[in-house]
Design a protein that fits this description.
The complex is a heterodimer. By secondary structure, chain A is mostly helical. Chain A is built from 12 helices and 2 strands, in the order H-H-E-E-H-H-H-H-H-H-H-H-H-H. The radius of gyration of chain A is 26 Å and the shape is globular. At the A-B interface, helix 7, helix 8 and helix 12 of A face helix 2, helix 3 and helix 6 of B. The structure holds adenosine-5'-triphosphate (ATP) and magnesium ion.
Chain lengths: ~300, ~250
């Protein structure tokens, strides 16, 4: 009799426990879903808000005309040009150096104290606030080297910021290349460099491209460091020694000085669409490349 | 009967750090014949194979002593160029390892790095190599498709085609069929029989029947030593050493 009741009470307890577990699980799931929903909601509402207020002011003139009266009127032609120009220069400087450095670190350098120090330096560099880069660029490129506020000074400064991102993503990508690819190539009589250039790098092109996009994102989104090194001139930059204003800087100026709500949101919309386009394009290139060479990825 | 010796190995010792993996090895590899290397796991077959195209050079902390004479020239002489060597001594690996490129680009890879640029010439080499590897009919319509989309057996034959495209004189094969099903295996074995007319082949295998089927000579390895090398028929019927007999009759290993 007592045994019987004991079993019953035990069973009741068990089911209670089970129910408890189920409840906590449900709550946890609910929480996770809520967070995911909030994140997506925040993203969509921010983009939506900007686009709703900005797209209606985006028209042909806005893209083709130069800004007038400090940006209160006219378009953002020179600013679009400045953004592309500056980004290209920054990427153009950072990409070869970054990839070369990553190749050296993963493929050629032997693990020693010096290489560890370099790695440590790159980690640190990646975490430094951009304004510090800006300050350095201002003191070194703008003043000391006499490049003044220019695409060149800005490009070099941004390149320094992009460089650690690029080096890290490339290094991570190269580390995952299986030894069998390398051995296969060398066994055919390829040199080490041929193996790297024709098998190792191409096999990780999409990974490297990802690093490049992160870099472009950082360059396009930067304001403080750009103002300090490329200036904020509204003129159309022609030479690499001309100052320029990027979209982010323009947006910052317009918003902080409350000049024109319309132009502010229109610029923000262009910036968002611009970044979405770059991402879309890059993933398309990567996908096409992967399809052509690789089915495992 | 005179035999041409393609490779002479003399007093070869190899150390991984302090561990001696190959002990005083001597062997003659006969030209245009298939030599099978058999022996229990870890006895140094792969290591030995990789000394013949100097692929062990890539591993840090390896020390090699002795001579490997290819057509009379020691490949471990300082003046000997490993790149030249690997053009002449090709290799097929245990696991098929096509590059993540198209089928065409895989085969054209070798000729390209050795300086052939004309499309017509490359086309010709690709077709010829794929035909020789008995793969042409299966892939002729999808040369621009990724090589990694092929089956394991097709991938291995592609790797053989890739190796043939460089026109080596010697082909090293490290358990080339261990990852393949019986049908693919017999295709690769037939291929080996075809290829020995023009190439000197050294094949590592764990499969006694395979050694019996494809090879003219067999060499038995044990604990980093070559116990004996002889005609395959002799090794399997009347081995000179008791340990060889024990191994092939399955009494150990
Ligand atoms: N890179 C290396 N560093 C240190 N030791 C190694 C290395 N490669 C192989 N060895 C050792 O050398 C010995 C011979 O290895 P090897 O791979 O040549 O054997 P194997 O005969 O090919 O074996 P299996 O039949 O299993 O492929 C083994 O004891 C192995 O542990
Ligand atoms: Mg092996």
């Amino acid at each position: 009799m007592t045994v019987y009741t004991k079993t019953i009470s035990h069973l009741v307890q068990m089911t209670r426990k089970k129910k408890k577990i189920k409840y906590t699980e449900k709550i946890a799931y609910g929480f996770i879903y809520l967070m995911a929903f909030l994140t997506i909601f925040a993203l969509i509402s921010i983009i939506g808000y900007v686009l709703i207020h900005g797209v209606k002011h985006m028209n042909w003139e806005f893209f083709t005309q130069e800004p007038r009266s400090m940006g209160r009127e006219g378009g953002i032609f020179s600013i679009i040009v400045g953004t592309i120009y500056l980004t290209l220069v920054a990427i153009g400087i950072a990409t070869p150096i970054g990839i070369a450095a990553a190749i050296h670190l993963t493929e050629y350098a032997r693990e020693n104290k010096f290489v560890k120090l370099i790695r440590f330096g790159i980690e640190i560099l990646a975490g430094i606030p951009s304004i510090i880069f800006g300050l350095f660029g201002f003191v070194f490129f703008v003043i000391f080297l006499g490049f003044r506020w220019s695409i060149l000074s800005g490009g070099l400064t941004l390149a320094m910021m992009i460089f650690p991102i690029l080096i890290r993503t490339t290094e991570e990508a190269l580390k995952t290349v299986p030894l069998s690819y390398r051995e296969g190539s060398l066994a055919l009589g390829a040199t080490k460099w041929q193996t790297i250039a024709r098998v190792v790098l191409p096999s990780r092109a999409s990974g490297i491209l990802t690093g490049l996009i992160l870099g472009i994102g950082r360059a396009v989104g930067e304001t403080a460091a750009v103002i300090l090194t490329a200036g904020s001139s509204l003129g159309l930059p022609i030479s690499i020694f001309d100052p320029a204003r990027t979209m982010s800087v323009h947006l910052y100026m317009l918003a902080s000085e409350g000049m024109s709500k319309e132009k502010t949101f229109a610029t923000a919309s262009v910036l968002i669409v611009w970044i979405l386009c770059i991402n879309f394009l890059a993933s398309m290139i990567a996908q096409r490349y992967v399809q052509k060479t690789n089915i495992e990825a | 009967m005179t035999k041409d010796i393609k490779i002479r190995v003399r007093n070869l010792n190899l150390f991984y750090g302090h561990f001696q993996a190959l002990v005083d090895m001597n062997i003659d590899i006969v030209q245009n014949k298939v030599t099978a290397l058999i022996g229990p796991s870890g006895c140094g077959k792969s290591t030995f194979l990789r000394t013949l195209n100097r692929l062990n050079d890539l591993i840090q902390d390896v020390k090699i002593e002795g001579k490997v004479l290819l057509d009379g020239k020691n490949i471990y002489d300082d003046a000997y160029d490993p790149i030249e060597l690997r053009k002449r001594v090709g290799m097929v690996f245990q696991k098929p390892n096509p590059f993540p490129k198209t089928i065409y680009e895989n085969v054209a890879y070798g000729p390209r790095i050795h300086g052939i640029k004309e499309k017509a010439k490359l086309d010709e080499i690709v077709e010829k190599s794929l035909r020789r590897a008995a793969l042409w009919d299966e892939v002729r319509h999808k040369l621009d498709k990724p090589a990694l989309g092929l089956s394991g057996g097709q991938q291995q034959r592609l790797c053989i085609a890739r190796c043939l495209a460089v026109e080596p004189e010697v082909i090293l094969m490290d358990e080339p069929t261990s990852a393949l099903d019986p049908i693919s295996t017999s295709k690769v074995e037939d291929l080996i029989g075809e290829l020995k007319k023009d190439y000197t082949i050294i094949i590592v295998t764990h499969n006694m029947q395979q050694a019996g089927r494809v090879s003219d000579y067999t060499s038995f390895f044990l604990n980093g030593e070559i116990i004996e090398t002889d005609l395959t028929s002799n090794i399997f019927s009347k081995p000179a050493d008791k340990r060889t007999e024990d191994y092939i009759t399955g009494r150990f290993g």
